[in-house]
Write a structure and sequence with these properties.
About 30% of the residues lie in helices and about 25% in strands. Helix 1 packs antiparallel against helix 10 and helix 5 packs across helix 6. A hairpin with a 2-residue loop joins strand 15 and strand 16. The strands form four sheets. The chain has a seven-stranded antiparallel β-sheet with strand order 8-3-10-1-16-15-17, covered by helices on one side. A five-stranded antiparallel β-sheet has the order 11-12-13-14-18. It is built from ten helices and 18 strands. It is α+β, with helices and mostly antiparallel strands.
Protein backbone atom coordinates (compact mmCIF):
# COMPACT_ATOMS: atom_id res chain seq x y z
CA UNK A 1 0.00 0.00 0.00
CA UNK A 2 1.46 3.36 -1.06
CA UNK A 3 1.56 6.28 1.37
CA UNK A 4 -0.65 9.24 0.43
CA UNK A 5 1.05 11.99 -1.53
CA UNK A 6 0.62 14.45 1.36
CA UNK A 7 1.64 11.94 4.06
CA UNK A 8 4.23 14.41 5.41
CA UNK A 9 1.43 16.63 6.69
CA UNK A 10 0.39 13.99 9.22
CA UNK A 11 3.69 12.90 10.71
CA UNK A 12 2.99 14.55 14.08
CA UNK A 13 0.07 13.77 16.36
CA UNK A 14 -0.20 16.95 18.38
CA UNK A 15 -3.18 15.71 20.46
CA UNK A 16 -4.37 19.29 20.96
CA UNK A 17 -3.13 21.99 23.35
CA UNK A 18 0.30 22.25 24.93
CA UNK A 19 1.35 22.70 28.54
CA UNK A 20 4.71 23.60 30.06
CA UNK A 21 5.85 24.17 33.62
CA UNK A 22 9.13 24.76 35.40
CA UNK A 23 9.87 25.12 39.10
CA UNK A 24 13.09 25.83 40.95
CA UNK A 25 12.81 24.14 44.34
CA UNK A 26 15.23 26.65 45.94
CA UNK A 27 13.27 29.63 44.55
CA UNK A 28 16.00 30.76 42.20
CA UNK A 29 14.43 33.14 39.70
CA UNK A 30 13.84 31.97 36.13
CA UNK A 31 13.54 34.55 33.32
CA UNK A 32 10.27 34.74 31.41
CA UNK A 33 12.14 33.96 28.21
CA UNK A 34 12.38 30.30 29.30
CA UNK A 35 8.64 29.46 29.24
CA UNK A 36 8.19 31.66 26.17
CA UNK A 37 10.87 29.75 24.23
CA UNK A 38 9.42 26.42 25.39
CA UNK A 39 5.96 27.35 24.14
CA UNK A 40 7.31 28.53 20.78
CA UNK A 41 8.47 24.94 20.23
CA UNK A 42 4.85 23.78 20.66
CA UNK A 43 3.32 26.47 18.43
CA UNK A 44 1.44 23.87 16.36
CA UNK A 45 -0.47 22.65 19.41
CA UNK A 46 -2.55 25.83 19.38
CA UNK A 47 -4.64 27.69 16.85
CA UNK A 48 -4.28 31.25 18.10
CA UNK A 49 -7.45 31.20 20.20
CA UNK A 50 -5.78 31.07 23.60
CA UNK A 51 -2.43 31.40 25.31
CA UNK A 52 -1.35 32.18 28.83
CA UNK A 53 1.19 32.04 31.62
CA UNK A 54 1.23 31.95 35.42
CA UNK A 55 4.28 33.19 37.34
CA UNK A 56 5.15 32.94 41.05
CA UNK A 57 7.44 35.28 42.95
CA UNK A 58 6.99 38.26 40.61
CA UNK A 59 5.79 40.77 43.22
CA UNK A 60 8.31 40.44 46.09
CA UNK A 61 7.84 44.09 47.15
CA UNK A 62 4.12 43.47 47.67
CA UNK A 63 4.23 39.82 48.69
CA UNK A 64 1.72 40.27 51.53
CA UNK A 65 -0.97 41.77 49.29
CA UNK A 66 -3.45 39.92 47.10
CA UNK A 67 -2.63 40.82 43.50
CA UNK A 68 -5.89 41.11 41.56
CA UNK A 69 -5.47 41.12 37.79
CA UNK A 70 -8.70 42.39 36.24
CA UNK A 71 -9.74 42.69 32.61
CA UNK A 72 -12.57 44.97 31.57
CA UNK A 73 -14.54 45.55 28.41
CA UNK A 74 -14.22 49.28 28.96
CA UNK A 75 -13.20 51.87 31.55
CA UNK A 76 -16.69 51.91 33.07
CA UNK A 77 -16.55 48.16 33.80
CA UNK A 78 -13.18 48.54 35.51
CA UNK A 79 -14.49 51.49 37.51
CA UNK A 80 -17.46 49.42 38.73
CA UNK A 81 -15.13 46.61 39.80
CA UNK A 82 -12.72 49.03 41.49
CA UNK A 83 -15.53 50.73 43.41
CA UNK A 84 -16.79 47.37 44.63
CA UNK A 85 -13.33 46.17 45.71
CA UNK A 86 -12.59 49.44 47.50
CA UNK A 87 -15.54 48.70 49.77
CA UNK A 88 -14.10 45.35 50.84
CA UNK A 89 -10.34 45.88 50.71
CA UNK A 90 -7.67 48.42 51.47
CA UNK A 91 -6.25 49.17 48.02
CA UNK A 92 -2.53 49.73 48.53
CA UNK A 93 -1.70 50.26 44.87
CA UNK A 94 -3.44 50.15 41.48
CA UNK A 95 -2.02 50.50 38.00
CA UNK A 96 -2.46 49.34 34.41
CA UNK A 97 -0.71 46.03 33.73
CA UNK A 98 2.22 46.94 31.45
CA UNK A 99 1.58 45.89 27.86
CA UNK A 100 2.91 46.60 24.41
CA UNK A 101 1.14 46.82 21.07
CA UNK A 102 1.24 43.49 19.22
CA UNK A 103 -0.18 43.28 15.70
CA UNK A 104 -1.45 39.73 16.18
CA UNK A 105 -3.33 40.51 19.42
CA UNK A 106 -6.65 41.94 18.30
CA UNK A 107 -9.06 44.00 20.42
CA UNK A 108 -7.56 43.27 23.86
CA UNK A 109 -9.56 44.27 26.94
CA UNK A 110 -8.32 46.87 29.38
CA UNK A 111 -6.14 45.20 32.03
CA UNK A 112 -5.28 46.57 35.48
CA UNK A 113 -3.81 45.17 38.66
CA UNK A 114 -4.70 45.96 42.24
CA UNK A 115 -2.69 45.13 45.34
CA UNK A 116 -5.19 44.60 48.15
CA UNK A 117 -5.62 43.57 51.77
CA UNK A 118 -8.99 42.67 53.34
CA UNK A 119 -10.36 45.41 55.56
CA UNK A 120 -9.98 44.80 59.29
CA UNK A 121 -13.57 45.89 59.83
CA UNK A 122 -15.46 44.09 57.09
CA UNK A 123 -18.73 45.48 55.77
CA UNK A 124 -19.94 42.00 54.76
CA UNK A 125 -19.03 38.33 55.15
CA UNK A 126 -17.70 39.05 58.63
CA UNK A 127 -18.02 35.38 59.57
CA UNK A 128 -15.67 34.26 56.79
CA UNK A 129 -11.98 33.52 57.01
CA UNK A 130 -9.66 35.64 54.88
CA UNK A 131 -9.37 33.20 51.95
CA UNK A 132 -13.13 32.66 51.73
CA UNK A 133 -13.59 36.44 51.90
CA UNK A 134 -11.30 36.88 48.88
CA UNK A 135 -13.01 34.05 46.99
CA UNK A 136 -16.38 35.67 47.66
CA UNK A 137 -15.15 38.96 46.20
CA UNK A 138 -13.76 37.23 43.09
CA UNK A 139 -17.01 35.34 42.52
CA UNK A 140 -19.04 38.54 42.92
CA UNK A 141 -16.99 40.50 40.37
CA UNK A 142 -17.01 37.64 37.85
CA UNK A 143 -20.74 36.98 38.07
CA UNK A 144 -22.38 40.29 39.00
CA UNK A 145 -20.30 43.14 37.58
CA UNK A 146 -20.91 43.26 33.82
CA UNK A 147 -17.84 43.58 31.66
CA UNK A 148 -15.28 42.93 34.43
CA UNK A 149 -13.41 39.73 35.19
CA UNK A 150 -10.79 38.86 37.84
CA UNK A 151 -8.31 36.54 36.15
CA UNK A 152 -5.74 36.33 38.95
CA UNK A 153 -6.09 36.79 42.71
CA UNK A 154 -3.12 35.22 44.52
CA UNK A 155 -0.27 36.64 46.57
CA UNK A 156 3.11 37.30 44.94
CA UNK A 157 1.96 35.65 41.71
CA UNK A 158 0.13 36.64 38.57
CA UNK A 159 -1.62 35.17 35.55
CA UNK A 160 -1.34 36.68 32.08
CA UNK A 161 -3.60 35.28 29.36
CA UNK A 162 -5.66 36.11 26.31
CA UNK A 163 -6.69 35.26 22.77
CA UNK A 164 -3.60 34.59 20.68
CA UNK A 165 -0.64 32.25 20.52
CA UNK A 166 1.37 32.08 23.77
CA UNK A 167 4.33 33.92 22.30
CA UNK A 168 2.01 36.75 21.22
CA UNK A 169 0.34 36.96 24.63
CA UNK A 170 3.79 36.95 26.26
CA UNK A 171 4.86 39.80 24.00
CA UNK A 172 1.66 41.71 24.77
CA UNK A 173 2.17 41.40 28.55
CA UNK A 174 5.97 41.98 28.30
CA UNK A 175 6.68 38.72 30.12
CA UNK A 176 10.30 38.77 28.99
CA UNK A 177 10.74 41.47 31.66
CA UNK A 178 9.57 39.22 34.52
CA UNK A 179 11.46 36.67 36.60
CA UNK A 180 9.79 33.99 38.71
CA UNK A 181 10.73 30.84 40.63
CA UNK A 182 7.85 28.90 39.03
CA UNK A 183 6.12 29.24 35.66
CA UNK A 184 3.35 27.43 33.85
CA UNK A 185 2.26 28.09 30.29
CA UNK A 186 -0.46 26.96 27.92
CA UNK A 187 -1.21 26.90 24.20
CA UNK A 188 -4.93 26.44 23.59
CA UNK A 189 -6.71 24.54 20.83
CA UNK A 190 -10.38 24.95 21.86
CA UNK A 191 -12.65 22.24 20.51
CA UNK A 192 -16.07 22.68 22.09
CA UNK A 193 -15.79 25.93 24.05
CA UNK A 194 -15.29 29.50 22.80
CA UNK A 195 -11.93 31.18 22.50
CA UNK A 196 -12.14 34.37 24.56
CA UNK A 197 -9.88 36.26 26.94
CA UNK A 198 -11.39 34.97 30.15
CA UNK A 199 -11.54 31.41 28.84
CA UNK A 200 -7.83 31.15 28.07
CA UNK A 201 -5.67 29.11 30.46
CA UNK A 202 -4.40 29.28 33.21
CA UNK A 203 -7.52 29.16 35.36
CA UNK A 204 -6.94 30.59 38.80
CA UNK A 205 -8.37 31.18 42.23
CA UNK A 206 -6.28 32.58 45.08
CA UNK A 207 -2.81 31.12 44.44
CA UNK A 208 -4.09 28.13 42.42
CA UNK A 209 -3.30 28.11 38.70
CA UNK A 210 -4.30 25.28 36.33
CA UNK A 211 -3.27 24.54 32.75
CA UNK A 212 -4.82 21.59 30.95
CA UNK A 213 -4.53 19.62 27.73
CA UNK A 214 -7.62 17.53 26.99
CA UNK A 215 -11.34 17.55 27.54
CA UNK A 216 -13.18 17.14 30.83
CA UNK A 217 -16.39 15.38 29.86
CA UNK A 218 -17.54 15.31 33.50
CA UNK A 219 -17.83 19.12 33.52
CA UNK A 220 -21.60 19.04 34.05
CA UNK A 221 -21.60 16.96 37.23
CA UNK A 222 -18.42 18.70 38.48
CA UNK A 223 -20.09 22.07 38.02
CA UNK A 224 -23.28 21.02 39.82
CA UNK A 225 -21.20 19.68 42.71
CA UNK A 226 -19.31 22.98 42.98
CA UNK A 227 -22.54 24.99 42.94
CA UNK A 228 -23.55 23.11 46.09
CA UNK A 229 -20.42 24.55 47.72
CA UNK A 230 -20.94 28.17 46.59
CA UNK A 231 -18.56 28.17 43.60
CA UNK A 232 -20.00 29.73 40.44
CA UNK A 233 -18.68 28.56 37.07
CA UNK A 234 -18.99 31.31 34.46
CA UNK A 235 -16.03 30.92 32.12
CA UNK A 236 -17.67 28.73 29.46
CA UNK A 237 -14.94 26.11 29.44
CA UNK A 238 -14.36 22.78 31.15
CA UNK A 239 -11.03 23.41 32.91
CA UNK A 240 -12.48 26.02 35.25
CA UNK A 241 -13.84 23.28 37.53
CA UNK A 242 -10.33 21.95 38.30
CA UNK A 243 -9.24 25.17 40.03
CA UNK A 244 -12.38 25.32 42.13
CA UNK A 245 -12.32 21.61 43.01
CA UNK A 246 -8.74 21.92 44.24
CA UNK A 247 -9.60 24.94 46.33
CA UNK A 248 -12.51 23.03 47.86
CA UNK A 249 -10.69 19.76 48.53
CA UNK A 250 -7.22 20.99 49.49
CA UNK A 251 -7.75 24.40 51.09
CA UNK A 252 -11.21 23.93 52.60
CA UNK A 253 -11.36 20.18 53.29
CA UNK A 254 -7.68 19.63 54.07
CA UNK A 255 -6.89 16.89 51.55
CA UNK A 256 -3.31 16.59 50.34
CA UNK A 257 -2.54 17.11 46.66
CA UNK A 258 -1.89 13.39 46.36
CA UNK A 259 -5.31 12.60 47.77
CA UNK A 260 -6.87 15.15 45.42
CA UNK A 261 -5.14 13.39 42.51
CA UNK A 262 -6.76 10.11 43.61
CA UNK A 263 -10.12 11.87 43.48
CA UNK A 264 -9.46 13.26 39.99
CA UNK A 265 -8.00 10.04 38.54
CA UNK A 266 -8.90 7.17 40.91
CA UNK A 267 -7.85 3.54 40.47
CA UNK A 268 -10.37 1.36 38.68
CA UNK A 269 -12.65 -0.66 40.93
CA UNK A 270 -10.95 -3.96 40.04
CA UNK A 271 -7.66 -2.43 41.27
CA UNK A 272 -9.34 -1.27 44.46
CA UNK A 273 -10.72 -4.77 45.05
CA UNK A 274 -7.16 -6.19 45.03
CA UNK A 275 -5.82 -3.67 47.57
CA UNK A 276 -5.09 -4.47 51.24
CA UNK A 277 -8.14 -3.86 53.41
CA UNK A 278 -7.08 -0.51 54.91
CA UNK A 279 -6.15 0.89 51.51
CA UNK A 280 -9.32 -0.47 49.94
CA UNK A 281 -11.45 1.23 52.59
CA UNK A 282 -9.64 4.54 52.06
CA UNK A 283 -10.14 4.56 48.29
CA UNK A 284 -13.76 3.46 48.66
CA UNK A 285 -14.38 6.32 51.10
CA UNK A 286 -12.80 8.85 48.73
CA UNK A 287 -15.06 7.71 45.90
CA UNK A 288 -18.12 7.78 48.16
CA UNK A 289 -17.47 11.33 49.36
CA UNK A 290 -15.97 12.88 46.22
CA UNK A 291 -17.48 10.84 43.39
CA UNK A 292 -18.88 13.99 41.78
CA UNK A 293 -15.34 15.49 41.67
CA UNK A 294 -13.89 12.68 39.53
CA UNK A 295 -12.58 13.99 36.19
CA UNK A 296 -13.71 11.98 33.18
CA UNK A 297 -12.14 12.31 29.76
CA UNK A 298 -8.58 12.70 28.47
CA UNK A 299 -6.39 15.16 30.35
CA UNK A 300 -2.91 16.19 31.32
CA UNK A 301 -2.97 18.97 33.91
CA UNK A 302 -0.37 21.06 35.67
CA UNK A 303 -1.41 22.41 39.06
CA UNK A 304 0.52 25.14 40.87
CA UNK A 305 0.10 26.97 44.14
CA UNK A 306 2.43 28.83 46.49
CA UNK A 307 3.87 25.52 47.73
CA UNK A 308 4.77 23.83 44.46
CA UNK A 309 3.68 22.08 41.27
CA UNK A 310 1.83 18.86 40.44
CA UNK A 311 1.46 17.10 37.09
CA UNK A 312 -1.27 14.53 36.52
CA UNK A 313 -2.58 12.43 33.65
CA UNK A 314 -6.00 10.82 33.36
CA UNK A 315 -6.12 7.19 34.47
CA UNK A 316 -5.70 5.86 30.92
CA UNK A 317 -3.04 8.44 29.88
CA UNK A 318 -4.84 9.70 26.80
CA UNK A 319 -2.78 12.90 26.76
CA UNK A 320 1.01 13.22 26.85
CA UNK A 321 3.00 14.44 29.84
CA UNK A 322 6.80 14.40 30.17
CA UNK A 323 8.78 15.26 33.31
CA UNK A 324 12.49 16.14 33.53
CA UNK A 325 14.95 17.29 36.17
CA UNK A 326 18.08 19.40 36.08
CA UNK A 327 19.81 20.38 39.33
CA UNK A 328 17.17 22.20 41.43
CA UNK A 329 14.72 22.58 38.54
CA UNK A 330 11.88 20.29 37.50
CA UNK A 331 10.18 20.61 34.11
CA UNK A 332 6.79 19.27 32.99
CA UNK A 333 5.54 19.49 29.44
CA UNK A 334 3.48 17.98 26.67
CA UNK A 335 6.69 17.37 24.70
CA UNK A 336 10.26 16.57 25.63
CA UNK A 337 11.37 18.82 22.75
CA UNK A 338 10.08 21.92 24.53
CA UNK A 339 12.09 21.04 27.64
CA UNK A 340 15.24 20.36 25.63
CA UNK A 341 14.78 23.68 23.86
CA UNK A 342 15.42 25.51 27.15
CA UNK A 343 17.64 22.94 28.92
CA UNK A 344 19.43 20.47 26.66
CA UNK A 345 21.51 18.68 29.30
CA UNK A 346 19.01 17.02 31.64
CA UNK A 347 19.71 14.80 34.65
CA UNK A 348 16.58 12.68 34.24
CA UNK A 349 13.60 12.38 31.87
CA UNK A 350 10.51 10.20 32.24
CA UNK A 351 6.82 9.90 31.37
CA UNK A 352 4.61 9.41 34.44
CA UNK A 353 2.19 6.50 34.46
CA UNK A 354 -1.53 7.02 33.99
CA UNK A 355 -3.11 8.58 37.07
CA UNK A 356 0.26 8.85 38.85
CA UNK A 357 0.86 12.38 40.21
CA UNK A 358 4.26 14.03 40.09
CA UNK A 359 4.42 16.48 43.01
CA UNK A 360 7.30 18.91 43.47
CA UNK A 361 7.35 21.03 46.63
CA UNK A 362 9.37 24.17 47.20
CA UNK A 363 12.11 23.96 49.79
CA UNK A 364 11.71 26.17 52.85
Amino acid sequence: MKAPKDFWKFDKDIAGCGVFGVIDRKRNLIPGTMPIDAMCTMHDRGNGLGGGFAAYGIYPDRADDYAFHIMGDDAAALERAETYLAGLFDVHHAEPIPTRDVLTVKNPPLVRRYFLAPKVVRPQWQHMGESDYVVGAVMHVNTRIPGAFVFSSGKNMGTFKGVGYPEDIADFFRLDEYRAYMWTAHNRFPTNTPGWWGGAHPFTLLDWAIVHNGEISSYGINRRYLCEHDYECTLMTDTEVVAYLLDLMVRKHGLSKRMASWVFAPPFWDEVDRMPEEQRKAFTALRAVYGAALLNGPFAILVTDSRGMMGLNDRVKLRPLVVAEKDTMTFMSSEESSIREVCRDLDRVWAPKAGEPVIVELEA
